[in-house]
Specification:
Blueprint (H helix, E strand, L loop, with lengths): L1 H13 L5 H5 L14 E2 L5 H4 L8 E10 L11 H15 L5 E10 L7 E3 L14 H7 L6 H10 L10 E5 L2 E11 L2 E8 L2 E2 L3 H4 L10 E4 L5 H17 L3 E3 L2 E4 L26 H7 L3 E4 L5 E3 L32
Parallel strand pairs: 2-3, 2-5, 4-6, 5-9
Antiparallel strand pairs: 1-3, 2-12, 6-7, 8-9, 10-11, 12-13
Helix pairs in contact: 4-8
């Protein structure tokens, strides 16, 4: 009797007049995520494109997803531009003794709701002067939005090597929100319309599912500087696992300067040693790299030990312990 009375009371309080069985049978609000029916583009000779590859050299596997049903007004990225930018990336990394292997270029119809996404949730805790950017990101990592998760679940095909493979995925718009100081002790949310976004583990750490660890979105190659450097730059975020930084330039969301590949500019340098912030050494340690043996098997680099934050033990002493930055008046 008490159970029946409690249920009737619940109905009265909620205004619900359905029976329990009917309530349990309500359809789920979770949308059905349909995988894209990708097909390999047969107009590109992948074997010819990869003819420069040699066994025994550190190698990076990259696949390209290019949707076939973009809105007619979208002209920021063409398939020809993707191939040209990819070739430029091969050239930029050649001096580092890293070779890039094109697995395939695939095309297919993507759900249009995924053409434009917000990459991550708006951060709730801004960085202050107490710790540097990388330590702050480890404590408060970025989190993918539900729409971004849906999009990547639909786009990326399940594979045993998902977490070791780079997926260059062309979309129309990918927005990246972050917090910056406005004035006094106030922060404001700023959203950047990205030309490329790498979803690096130094930012997402353990919040990024292994299946999506290799995702890089490309949304604008229309300018000559973007065409030459965007793919190489975004791959750098992924495989060096560093932000926009170079030599004595500490990392930040937007740093425009010349010299290094990891700054916004025309630079292509990937420096080594402590003065070069260990970029070359971190690149060579990347879990995305392997050596192809004579029997065609792959010997992979060691994987991350703590999700891939900047100070992951994988990197040993190949890190920089720089100070935090005073973003506001210390007398606030």
């Amino acid at each position: 009797m008490r159970a029946a009375f409690n249920f009737l009371l619940l109905l009265a309080l909620t205004g619900c007049n359905q029976d329990p069985e009917a309530f349990q049978q309500q359809p789920s609000s979770t949308p059905e995520i349909l995988p894209v029916a990708w097909s390999v583009l047969d107009t590109l000779d992948v074997a010819e494109f990869n003819k420069d590859l040699v066994s025994g050299k550190l190698t990076l596997d990259v696949g390209v997803y290019f949707p076939s049903n973009f809105d007619p007004a979208f002209r920021k990225v063409t398939l020809a531009q993707m191939i040209e930018s990819f070739q430029a990336a091969k050239e930029i990394y050649q001096p580092t003794c890293i070779q890039i292997n094109l697995l395939w270029v695939k095309t297919g119809a993507v759900d249009p709701q995924y053409f434009s996404i917000q990459a991550n949730e708006v951060p709730g805790v801004p960085n202050t002067e107490y710790v540097n950017m990388y330590k702050h990101m480890r404590r408060h990592p970025a989190i993918l939005t539900p729409l971004a998760k849906e999009a990547f679940s639909s786009i990326i095909e399940p594979d045993t090597q998902n977490s070791r493979t780079i997926y260059l995925t062309v979309l129309q718009d990918v927005f990246y929100p972050f917090l910056e100081v406005s004035e006094g002790r106030n922060w404001t949310m700023k959203t950047v319309r990205t030309g490329g976004l790498s979803f690096p583990t130094y930012s997402y750490c353990n919040t990024l599912p292994d299946a999506f660890r290799g995702i890089i979105t490309i949304t604008n190659l229309s300018r000559p500087d973007r065409l030459r450097g965007t793919i190489a730059h975004e791959i750098g975020h992924k495989v060096m696992n560093v932000s926009h930084e170079y030599m004595s330039t500490n990392p930040g969301h937007e740093i425009f300067a010349e010299g290094g590949l990891m700054l916004y500019g025309d630079g292509e340098d990937i420096p080594s040693g402590k003065e070069g912030r260990w970029h070359l050494e971190r690149l060579h340690l990347s879990p995305f790299l392997y050596k192809l043996n004579e029997d065609r098997t792959k010997t992979w680099n060691e994987d991350y030990k703590e999700g891939g934050h900047y100070y992951d033990p994988l990197y040993g002493n190949k890190v920089v312990h720089f100070s935090g930055k005073a973003e506001i008046d210390e007398n606030w």
